[in-house]
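Subject: Sanity check before I submit

Could someone independently write out the structure tokens for this chain? I want to compare against mine line by line before I put it in a report. The sequence has 304 residues.
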Amino acid sequence: MGSVRWAFRCGSWTPTRPDWLFAARCVQREEKDRIGQFVFARDAKSAMAGRLLLRKFVHDRIGIPWSEITLERSPRGKPYLATPMKVGPDSLPETPSWSFNLSHQGDYAVLAAEQGMQVGVDIMKITMPGSSSVPEFFRIMTRQFTAYEWSVIQSSSLEHQQLAAFYRHWALKESFIKAIGTGLGFNLQRVEFQVSPEPLSQTGALRQTKMLLDEEEEDNWVFEESLLDADHHVAVALGPADNAGSSALLPPPPPPPPTSFTLLSFSDLIASASPLTEEDPACWDSFKMKAEAPQRQREARASE
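---
Independent answer below. Compare away.
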């Protein structure tokens, strides 16, 4: 059984022209075009990092050559590996397949992957509501949590701690939704989390949180929670593999001990990469304009 937890800090990544042009050559053409459509540089960086994380994982852990990797998206947007697996005479047919998932928000892009289990990952940065007070923000989000969850979220008298609890619960819900792949149509009040009172840590993952689905505790699901830094919560949902046949009726094997997220550098992301397309200087010109737009806007406001 295998387990992968990787993180890349997009917020502090300032790609050079050669770095960005090389990265653009190492992702599929349609993904490169999609990244180029983002309005903001931060979103383009997060998307690029996500694609490189996926391809590095498939190459390093599944063993498919970089140039042969084909990643596609389900109708609900979840990435999956479309490359046919090569089965040789020494292959083990009983080897569990990998499940993987991506998330990016705040300053990071993260990837979680697991053999023999469904996996979903979500990262949330603790941020103050942009256009409303915390009580008003919570009022708008009322229907996303159960009464019990709101009692936990609002148990502190400090707004920052309330927001931390809110984003912790939100990351848990999103990790489960992403693992089962149902998308936005799922009623989030069907799932209720009973979070561990133990504080989250940057040095290890907790697995004490329990989930109720339609008021019944789900023993087959495990949730890992950790902090990448003081402001970023990460939740990983691990559930039974979606296999056909009688084996699907058996309880899933216990996951390996929780794995802390490993922070990768850009050099790590491209260490095994190989170009798929010719260099396109327009990719850099487009990204540079996005990156410089905030500074131009600040200068324009200052001159008014």
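---
OP: Matches mine. For the report I'm noting this point. Residues 10 and 45 are 6 Å apart (CA to CA).
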